[in-house]
């Protein structure tokens, strides 16, 4: 059984194969979190021409009809994935990034494809995805394939306050989605050699035990396992862990980054993970 979500899952679609996959993943996410799904297609043609209606004598023609078909195809894909969820749609004109940001206000998550059809009308992870990563006030789910839908949810933990908040949020997501949670901590090669660790520096196992306790305080009924991974980068360890995951969760920034910026670890995971990536935004 899943907990009730605090908002709607919003997905932006543009008619591409990747966007249809995003609609499918978003529908599954909505079903697992007991959320409604809202599908948004932003079309730009009304900004450039008033001639968006059908061609006389040609059935189902015209720019508006083509835009409506984008929504219909995404709705059909979402409905096939999750027949019982509530689905609403919206066809809006304007700038893609601004309209999706507006639609995401108060949402449980906003979902975008890793890439769209290309060009200014389909930059869902180009300029639009980057814009949402920076400015959305809700989690951003970037779809990079489906991953293993039965796999665990993965999150990194390094003991920092930001990673503690990430684990708290991700534990709640795992409870909603009825998935186990795996916490990953990476350490550089050779750092565990005798005499190389600072006296006051906790071991990876100690750190992960702290993360596990945080997760279980947040969601006592979930299964939490841990992995201490010797790897040259935190991003690389998370990308490797994504191979058998249903989702990887990352925070928006590394230590020392200004609020709103996306850290190098999050960017690398977003670009290279084998499954959808949830960017958990920090609250002001």
What does this structure look like?
The structure is a single chain. This protein has 284 residues and is of the alpha/beta class. The chain has two domains: 135 residues, HUPs (Rossmann fold, 3-Layer(aba) Sandwich), CATH 3.40.50.620; 114 residues, HUPs (Rossmann fold). 36% of the residues lie in helices and 18% in strands. It is built from eight helices and ten strands. A ten-stranded mixed beta sheet has the order 3-2-1-4-5-10-9-6-7-8, sandwiched between helices. β9, α8 and β10 form a beta-alpha-beta unit. α1 packs across α2. The two termini are 31 Å apart. About 6% of the residues have low confidence.
Brief summary of the model shown:
By secondary structure, the protein is of the alpha/beta class.
SSE order and pairing:
Blueprint lengths: L8 E4 L4 H16 L4 E7 L19 H19 L5 E7 L2 H9 L4 E5 L13 H9 L4 E4 L9 E4 L4 H17 L3 E7 L16 H15 L5 E7 L3 H8 L5 E4 L13 H9 L4 E3 L5
Parallel strand pairs: 1-2, 1-4, 2-3, 4-5, 6-7, 6-9, 7-8, 9-10
Antiparallel strand pairs: 5-10
Helix pairs in contact: 1-2, 3-4, 5-6, 7-8
Instruction: Determine Rg (CA atoms, Å).
Output: 20 Å
CATH class membership of the largest domain: Alpha Beta
CATH architecture of the largest domain: 3-Layer(aba) Sandwich
| Largest sheet report | 10 strands, mixed
Which fold name is given in CATH as the topology of the largest domain?
A: Rossmann fold
Order of helices and strands: EHEHEHEHEEHEHEHEHE
Low-pLDDT sequence parts: 117-125, 254-260
- Counting DSSP E segments of at least 2 residues, the number of strands comes to 10
Shape type: elongated
Query: How many discrete domains?
Result: 2
Structural class: alpha/beta
Helicity level: 25-40%
Number of helices in the DSSP assignment: 8
The CATH superfamily of the largest domain bears the name HUPs
N-end to C-end Cα span? 31 Å
Task: Assess the beta-strand content as a share of residues.
Answer: 15-25%
- Spatially, the strands of the biggest sheet line up as 3-2-1-4-5-10-9-6-7-8
């Amino acid at each position: 059984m899943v907990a009730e979500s605090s908002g709607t899952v919003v997905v932006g679609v543009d008619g591409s194969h990747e966007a249809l996959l995003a609609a499918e993943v978003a529908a599954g996410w909505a079903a697992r979190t007991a959320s409604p799904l809202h599908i948004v297609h932003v079309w730009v043609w009304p900004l450039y021409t008033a001639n968006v209606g059908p061609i006389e004598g040609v059935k189902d023609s015209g720019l508006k009809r083509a835009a409506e078909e984008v929504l219909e195809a995404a709705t059909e894909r979402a409905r096939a994935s999750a027949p019982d969820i509530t689905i609403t749609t919206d066809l809006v004109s304007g700038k893609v990034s601004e309209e999706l940001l507006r639609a995401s206000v108060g949402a449980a998550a906003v979902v975008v494809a890793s890439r769209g059809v290309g060009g200014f009308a389909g930059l869902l992870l180009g300029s639009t995805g980057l814009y949402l990563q920076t400015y959305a006030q809700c989690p951003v789910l970037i779809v990079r394939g489906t991953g293993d839908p039965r796999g665990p949810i993965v999150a990194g933990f390094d003991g920092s306050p930001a990673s503690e908040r990430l684990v708290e949020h991700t534990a709640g997501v795992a409870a909603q989605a009825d998935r186990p949670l795996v916490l990953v901590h990476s350490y550089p090669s050779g750092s565990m050699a005798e005499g190389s660790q600072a006296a006051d520096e906790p071991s990876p196992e100690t750190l992960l035990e702290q993360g596990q306790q945080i997760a279980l305080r947040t969601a006592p009924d979930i299964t939490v396992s841990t992995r201490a991974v010797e790897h040259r980068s935190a991003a690389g360890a998370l990308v490797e862990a994504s191979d058998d995951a249903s989702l990887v969760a990352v925070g928006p920034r590394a230590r020392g980054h200004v609020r709103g910026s996306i850290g190098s670890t999050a960017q690398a995971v977003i670009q290279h993970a084998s499954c959808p990536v949830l960017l958990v935004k920090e609250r002001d």
